[in-house]
Amino acid sequence: MVTHVNAETHGDERGALINFVEAQRGALRRSVLGLTGEQANARPSASELTLGGLVKHVAEVELTWLRMAQQKPNERARTQETWGEGFRLAEGETVAGILAFWDGVARETEEFIREVPSLDDTFPLPPAPWFPKDGVVSMRWVMLHLVEEIARHAGHADIVRESLDGKTAFELVDLERGESSI
C-alpha cells in the first residue's frame, strides 16, 4: 500500500519537500522492479515511452534543475538534436546504471536543498520559449516542480508497466517490500 508522506518534523518545509520528491522517485523506481533489459526498453503501446527511458529522462531532468539552481553548467545538457536520446537507453546503458546515476543526483539535490540559505532564494531561468522572459524561480518552486515532473512520469510508468506484465503500482509496492499482493 502507498504510505502517507510526512515532513521529517512538524513544520519542516524542507523535509516535507524532500520527502515528497523522494516518494515520487520511489514510484518511478518501482516501475522497473524485476524487469529484464528487454522489458525496460519495450514499447507496449502506441506511445514511444519505455520504462528505462522514463527513468533516464527524469534523472536527467532532475540534474538539469539542480544545475540551474546551483547556477552551474549541466554536464548532461541536451540539445534540440539530442533531446530524444534522453527518453531511451543508449547502447551500453542499463536500468541499474541509470538508477545509480539518479541516486547520485538525488543525494546532491537533497544536500543542496538542505544547505541553501532559504527556500525563497531564487535563480534566473535560461532563455527558452517555454520560460517567461527574465524569469526567476525559487528553490521551493524547484522542489514543487520536481514533485510535479516526477509524478507525471510515474503515472506514465504505471501504465507502461501494467501494459507489460499486468503489475499495478500497489503490487510493485508489495514486491519492493518483499510481500505478496492481496
Structure description:
- With 182 residues, the protein is mainly alpha-helical.
- Helices cover 54% and strands 3% of the residues.
- It has six helices and two strands.
- A two-stranded antiparallel sheet has the order 1-2.
- α1 runs antiparallel to α4, α1 runs parallel beside α5 (139-165) and α3 packs parallel to α4.
- The longest helix has 27 residues, at 139-165.
- The chain is globular and about 45 Å long.
- The mean pLDDT is 93.
Question: What is the structure about, briefly put?
Answer:
The protein has helices at about 15-30, 35-40, 50-70, 95-115, 140-165, 170-175, and strands at about 120-125, 135-140. With about 180 residues, it is mainly alpha-helical.
